[in-house]
Design a protein that fits this description.
about 100 residues, alpha+beta, (2Fe-2S) ferredoxin domain-containing protein, 4 strands, globular, Thioredoxin-like_sf
Length: about 100
């Protein structure tokens, strides 16, 4: 068994929806953000084994700070407002290897 991770970056974008009125990522554009990130990674030819995987996730338990994204294996947590922020996370963190401090939570 290899010690090399299957993906260089494994990105989880919370899609959690709460009916009881508490904050949730689904109410803050999470579906669109995940679709945009997945499409952008494919356009950059960064998807697949040894590269990047964009996944939907259930609750990541940080809804009050959301919407939230976590990137592994680094374990870096981000929030975002729009697709420009998603692009910045992709360009800086995934492509450039630099943490986007202004979006980090």
């Amino acid at each position: 068994m290899s010690d090399t991770p299957y993906y260089e970056h494994h990105v989880f974008i919370c899609q959690n929806y709460r009916e009881e009125g508490r904050p949730c990522c689904a109410d803050k554009g999470a579906k669109e953000a995940q679709e945009h990130a997945k499409s952008r990674i494919k356009k950059l030819n960064l998807n697949g084994q040894g590269k990047v995987r964009i996944n939907k996730s259930g609750c990541l338990d940080r809804c009050e700070e959301g919407p939230v994204i976590v990137i592994y294996p680094q374990g870096t947590w981000y929030t975002y407002v729009d697709t420009n922020d998603i692009d910045e996370i992709i360009d800086e963190h995934i492509v450039g290897g630099r943490v986007v401090e202004r979006l980090k939570i």
